[in-house]
């Protein structure tokens, strides 16, 4: 089977470091030879030997390699080394099923004057019993230089074979890339506190009935190019301050004040729309996974042929009493309609049931959006607008995109194939029609969607019912309590089958050490047993856990292994290794365990990402078992949930950097708005307060600018002193 590899040739002179604005341009796609796609390093010791001062032999010691390319179905390779010099070839033994082989073999060659210009070639290959061996990379050495240095030892990057220039360059299309390298200096927290307080006060004043000038200025001066990034940073900052609902409510009101046509409400890429998108992706990912996961997985597993458009229907064979005949176009469409109706009904039922487990903060944000729109458009002819405002975010900007591209929302590890992708697209179209609460407009554009009309009409009624329940979360105290408990329990309780290996001395056996157990994470302990219903026989007390970290892929040949390091009563460390099914499962367990241990005091500051075997650590090659570790632990880093520890200083720095860039525009816009609303001020005192607040804001930006200049000056002085010291020595 011929595989075509498409790659991107990046010119070496395109250096991000030397281009402040980054790179934005079209790059030609070119055909790439598989033998050029290499990776990894090899550890060699090459020396020149001789009698007295006359070199007579060349010795190449091949010790080990790491991070080799995956060439076999098991995710590894069967590597061996081929050493060539002066027409002679030697080969090492084959090490089976690994990307981190160890050979410890030596090869010697005779040195002759005529062969001084011949290079020493060290090649790594993947051995195959049936097909040809696969090239993994090579290193070339100049013998003249070796004779001068006598020896060379170290890790060498494997390179490709001679590149094969393609005559099709530019004929395979182009890809536009935007690349940017950002270097941010984050100051101590005290420097950002005035900015954070002013932004929080601006949102808080809106709650008390005053107008938030700062948020209005940010909204008016943020360009389309920076809007997504600014929205994401502001959402995270206000999440950290506990004011995200108030912040989004301010943006809802600003958007409504500028909207005269309700049918276009929240359809543009405004700061309000981008902020709500960011909020949903941060606060609603677990909800989305629970909602869509079963249906998406079913579509991927069944991989049915689904098509409604007659112009795209492919006639297929159908079984008929032992004989085969070709289906008609009508039969294909009818069968496709049945499959889509089944998927759509299943998804609509899941949406309706999700009102009971939707995170409370999402319910509250949708509730305030619903009531804001209802108050702005109270007329009977606009009775659907309040529902569409909710569905425009929940369905059109969250659920539908996740159905079309599950991988981008971490619902699947790989993109869908063409057949599955078409099914997902048609399902997403149906959800969009339901979210618009109007089938006529869509069916006039795509009349071939008409067969789904009955299910879509039923879905509209179900979606309205769901939204009514969703925005009534504060009407029932027990519903709010249930949502809160659901949110809290999600951080503390988890269970499922995993592959486990436990060791006190971290010495790895030669065979696979993992065994299947049912693992349960509860409020105080992590326990596991051979089956779900058998008595739990092994426990780890959560307060005794010292670290929860990932394990390097080379340790067990799997990228989804994590380790739990805990201390027993005697103070001895024990390590439990967990091998998860996928990267998503790994991330969920990491997050859950780190949250459960977030208040532990006796934690480790460093750890080994590898394992101890063959008398050394696989990560740093230290021989001391009790070595403290070669990498920093990541206690505060959890994944994919809004209540994870945030980095308020970084978010404040990124917001400051943006505001500094638009400072002059903000001043001009403020003077314009001040003059426009001069007659709308309630009292002179209130007007003076708002003026003072904005002036303090510009003063805070200047203070932060001065603080950055001081840090940069200190850094330049330090570099200058280091340079002078080097000259003196």
From TrEMBL:
Highest taxon listed in the record's lineage: Eukaryota
Signal peptide residue numbers: 1-21
Keywords: GTPase activation, Metal-binding, Repeat, Signal, Zinc, Zinc-finger
Domain called C2: residue spans: 38-156
PROSITE patterns xref list: C2, PH_DOMAIN, RAS_GTPASE_ACTIV_1, RAS_GTPASE_ACTIV_2, ZF_BTK
Occurrences of domain Ras-GAP (ranges): 226-436
Any Pfam family matching the protein: PH
Classification via InterPro entries: C2_dom, C2_domain_sf, PH-like_dom_sf, PH_domain, Ras_GTPase, RasGAP_CS, RasGAP_dom, Rho_GTPase_activation_prot
SMART domains recorded: BTK (SM00107), C2 (SM00239), PH (SM00233), RasGAP (SM00323)
KW Nucleus (keyword) present: no
Domain PH: 491-598
Gene Ontology molecular function: GTPase activator activity; zinc ion binding
Protein name, per record: Ras GTPase-activating protein 4-like
Lineage: Eukaryota, Metazoa, Chordata, Craniata, Vertebrata
């Amino acid at each position: 089977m011929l595989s075509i590899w498409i790659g991107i040739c990046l010119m070496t002179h395109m250096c991000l470091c030397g281009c402040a604005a980054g790179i934005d341009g079209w790059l030609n796609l070119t055909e790439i030879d598989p033998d050029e796609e290499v990776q990894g390093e090899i550890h060699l010791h090459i020396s020149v030997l001789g009698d007295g001062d006359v070199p007579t032999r060349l010795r190449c010691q091949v010790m080990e390699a790491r991070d080799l390319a995956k060439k076999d179905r098991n995710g590894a390779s069967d590597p061996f080394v081929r050493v060539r010099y002066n027409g002679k070839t030697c080969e090492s033994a084959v090490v089976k099923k690994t990307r981190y082989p160890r050979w410890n073999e030596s090869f010697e060659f005779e040195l002759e004057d005529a062969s001084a210009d011949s290079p020493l070639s060290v090649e790594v290959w993947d051995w195959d019993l049936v097909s040809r061996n696969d090239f993994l990379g090579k290193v070339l050495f100049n013998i003249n230089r070796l004779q001068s240095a006598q020896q060379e030892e170290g890790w060498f990057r494997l390179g490709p074979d001679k590149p094969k220039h393609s005559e099709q360059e530019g004929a395979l299309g182009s890809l536009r890339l935007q690349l940017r390298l950002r270097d941010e200096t984050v100051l101590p927290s005290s420097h950002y506190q005035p900015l954070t307080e002013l932004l929080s006060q601006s949102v808080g004043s809106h709650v008390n009935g005053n107008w938030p000038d700062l948020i209005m200025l940010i909204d008016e001066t943020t360009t389309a190019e920076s809007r997504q990034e600014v929205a994401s940073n502001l959402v995270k900052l206000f999440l950290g301050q506990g004011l995200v609902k108030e912040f989004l409510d301010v943006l809802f009101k600003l958007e409504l004040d500028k909207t005269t046509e309700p049918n276009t409400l929240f359809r543009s890429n405004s700061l309000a729309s981008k902020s709500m998108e960011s909020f949903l992706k941060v606060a609603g990912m677990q909800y989305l996974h629970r909602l869509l996961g079963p249906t998406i997985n079913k579509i991927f597993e069944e991989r049915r042929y689904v098509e409604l458009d007659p112009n795209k229907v492919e006639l297929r064979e159908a079984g008929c009493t032992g004989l085969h005949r070709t289906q008609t176009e009508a039969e294909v469409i009818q069968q496709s309609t049945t499959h889509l109706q089944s998927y759509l009904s299943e998804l609509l039922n899941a949406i309706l049931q999700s009102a009971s487990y939707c995170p409370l903060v999402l319910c509250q944000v949708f509730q305030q959006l619903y009531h804001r729109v209802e108050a702005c458009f109270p007329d009977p002819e606009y009775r659907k607008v309040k529902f569409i405002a909710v569905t425009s975010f929940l369905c059109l900007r969250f659920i539908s995109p996740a159905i079309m591209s599950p991988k981008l929302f971490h619902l699947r590890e790989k993109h869908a194939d063409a057949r599955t992708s078409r099914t997902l697209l048609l399902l997403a179209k149906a959800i969009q029609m339901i979210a618009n609460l109007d089938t006529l407009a869509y069916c006039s554009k795509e009349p071939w969607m008409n067969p789904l009309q009955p299910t879509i009409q039923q879905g509209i009624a179900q979606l309205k019912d769901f939204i009514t329940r969703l925005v009534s979360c504060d009407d029932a105290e027990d519903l709010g309590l249930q949502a809160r408990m659901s949110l809290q329990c999600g951080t503390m309780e988890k269970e499922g089958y995993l592959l486990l290996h436990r060791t006190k001395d971290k010495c790895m056996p030669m065979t696979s050490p993992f065994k299947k157990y049912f693992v349960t994470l509860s409020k105080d302990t992590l326990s596991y047993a051979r089956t779900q219903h058998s008595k739990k026989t092994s426990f780890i007390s959560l307060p005794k856990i010292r670290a929860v970290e990932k394990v390097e892929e080379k340790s067990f040949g799997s990228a989804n292994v994590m380790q739990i390091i805990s201390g027993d009563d005697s103070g001895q460390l024990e390590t439990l290794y967990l091998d998860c099914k996928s990267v998503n499962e790994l991330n969920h367990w990491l997050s859950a365990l780190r949250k459960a241990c977030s208040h532990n005091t006796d934690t480790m500051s460093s750890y080994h990402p590898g394992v101890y075997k063959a008398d050394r650590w696989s990560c740093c090659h230290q021989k001391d078992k009790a070595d403290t570790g070669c990498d920093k632990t990541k206690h505060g880093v959890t994944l994919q949930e809004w209540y994870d520890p945030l980095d308020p200083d970084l978010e404040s720095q990124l917001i400051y950097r943006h505001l500094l860039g638009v400072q002059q525009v903000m001043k001009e816009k403020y003077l314009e708005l001040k003059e426009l609303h001069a007659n709308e001020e309630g009292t002179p005192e209130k007007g003076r307060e708002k003026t003072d607040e904005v002036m303090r804001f510009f003063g805070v930006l200047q203070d932060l600018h001065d603080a950055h200049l001081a840090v940069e000056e200190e850094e330049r002085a330090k570099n200058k002193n280091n340079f002078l010291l080097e000259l003196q020595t």
